Amino acid sequence: MEHFHKSPDSEVLANVETLFISISVTTFLYMDIPHLAAFYRHYAGPADKIEGESFSIDDDMYKIVQHEPLRVYTGTASWNGSFLYVDWKIVLAFTGGNAIGIANISITGSAVSGIKVHENAVESNLKQMTFVLGGKSPAIVFKDADLDRALERRVEHDVTMPAQAGTSARPSFRDYLPKPDFPRLKHLSSCDAHTWGDLRIKEPFVADWMSLANGLISAPYQGITTDGVVQKGLFKLAGVNDDHGAPVQAMIDAVNNILLCASEQERRLICHDLDALQWRQWMNPEIYVFKNGVRLEEISDALAEKIHALMRASLSPSGYQRAIGCMKVNAFLGRLVNGRGVLNRDSYNFVLYGEMPPRRDRPWGWQLYGHHLCLNCTVLNTQMVLSPVFMGAEPNVIDDGGSDDGLLLFDTQEARGLALMQSLPQDLQCRIRVYDNLEDPNMPEWRFHRADQRHLGGAFQDNRVIPYEGVPVVEFPTWAQSAVENIIRISLDILPEKSLDQRMREILQHWSKTFFSWIGSFSDVDAFYYKIHSPVIMIEFDHHTGLFLTNKEALPFHIHTLIRTPNGNDYGKEYIRQYNEQAASRA
After folding, report:
1. What would the pLDDT profile of 468-484 be if each residue is shown by its tens digit?
2. pTM of the model
3. Are residues 578 and 462 both part of a single domain?
4. Are both 112 and 249 inside the same structural domain?
5. What CATH code is carried by the domain that includes residue 52?
6. One domain, residues 248 and 373
7. I need a surface site. Which of 35, 41, 235, 567 has the fewest CB within 10 A?
8. At residue 411, does pLDDT exceed 80?
């Protein structure tokens, strides 16, 4: 049976298994595959010897033969050994002449995972489910145990089944909580957003950065490119009768409610022209510099709720929860460092762009920006562009025992990216990994910035030249290409479902020019950066050093994620250009 692990099909199965449960490829190839092959071979013997006929033979009566399965076989197939546990049940069912049916699906995972699954079930059709929630694989060692042997077996378990080992080996943000005399916290407890911004803008680095930002913002918009030249013909404005999935009427209704609720002065602050430079002044730090629109903490609860209603109408349910998660974590950070006046759930500005009230047949958009959350949404007919998008968190988990305890952000993008990189052939890993270290001495000056660190598509970078890096994904194995597609979909699932499907079709049209790159190491405890980049999409994921926390090296609990639409269609600019061109031709 030893030859089975050498089969190309075995390698495909092994890569799929490790991608989803983190079992090592070696363990699957040399343990699970031979076991499965032996199991199928063993039960192939009795499969043709069960006649399935039930009748009495000596009663001189007319006989009717009734074919029956040998027995009904039931079993549970656990997530942590998918192929192994499923095949154990399938083989026995086939041998006995049974068909395969699924009676129930149970969900195993953290309480946060359970809540997400429950929300999705409620929002669909109230599927019946059972939950087994909580920690995985606790290790209980009794006083009379052989400690050396217990440790040996525990390590053996964690090596063969790392997905069940949890994240205990990863650093905790609580090891990096600042003391009251930490320089970053000076004056923080007594400041609000305005006074804190006034203090920070006086720092030489921030002053120079904002001076550079003003120059970048005032430059005519072109869009992110790989070489300074915009590729034409990538984005086509939909026709009036085309359905591209944007929930435009719900969004328009939500905007109208905002305008009705806002005072006259608030409406003047909120509403800007479609081509206003303010749209490009969003920024993700907590430093309050560009004071556009209204700030959620400075308006009535009623108006703030109307703005949240627009977010709910524009985003997918999971997208809205991710955005709210960024706000909640920002407030959690404010509690951790005693900076509630600067870091809170409402530290965000809201702006509308275009003619108001909005109409279905005219382009318009909205923007929300602040610490670790910046959303830019443009709508025309049923076509929408949701970019630039910045989402981040420091830390990326809430663990204070309150109502949001267990909230965890960006874990799926992180885990899927890491699992993909760990599973790829070594030669591909070497080509994808463009720098060995997150702050690598071989990096050119443009590749690292003190504030943005490795990510390239941050605030004020609307016209940046960003070359492709890494390897075209078409050179990946088929299963790995599917994994990249899955990472893209997960990153973009802030979009409503139909809009997401339309966006994925657009991205897949340029699959041959889609690149995947990596910076840093890729063990289970490492911080890292990855980028997915094509003519029509750029997604970045980056672990950062501490800002309010004290870690001087990048660690996995401070995360920045970005979404950009290169070649001129951030903010829906290319759609707006085509709309204006068509309108001018009709005039």
Report:
1. 999 999 999 999 999 99
2. 0.78
3. yes
4. no
5. 3.40.605.10
6. yes
7. 41
8. yes
In a domain, 155, yes or no: yes
Identify the CA nearest to 320 among candidates 147, 456, 494: 494
Give the 3-state secondary structure of residue 453.
strand
Contact 380, 363 (CB under 8 A): yes
Residue type, 6: K
Q: Are 199 and 348 in contact (CB under 8 A)?
A: no
Residues 6+ apart with CB under 8 A from 128: 104
> Taking a C-beta distance cutoff of 8 angstroms, is the pair 466, 452 a contact?
no
CA gap 162, 415 in Å, rounded: 12
Q: What is the pLDDT of residues 258-281, one digit of tens each?
A: 999 999 999 999 999 999 999 999
- pLDDT tens profile 538-561: 999 999 999 999 999 999 999 999
Say yes or no: 342 and 483 in one domain.
yes
**Greater model confidence, 391 or 99:** 391
Dist CA 155 CA 169 (whole Å): 12
pLDDT at 240: 82
Residue 387 domain-assigned? yes
Same domain assignment for residues 485 and 567: yes
Asked if the bond preceding 472 is cis, omega within 30° of 0, the reply is no
Token pair belonging to 550: 């004290």
Asked if residue 271 and residue 142 are part of one domain, the reply reads no
- Site of tokens 């020019």: 513
CA 351/CA 294 separation, integer angstroms: 7
Tell me if 492 is assigned to some domain.
yes
Report pLDDT for 309: 99
If one compares 556 and 132, the residue with the highest pLDDT of the two is 556
The pLDDT value recorded for residue 488 is: 98
First vs last Cα of the chain: how many Å apart? 77
Give the span between the Cα atoms of 506 and 483, in whole angstroms: 18
Residue 560 and residue 392 in contact, taking contact as beta carbons nearer than 8 Å:
yes
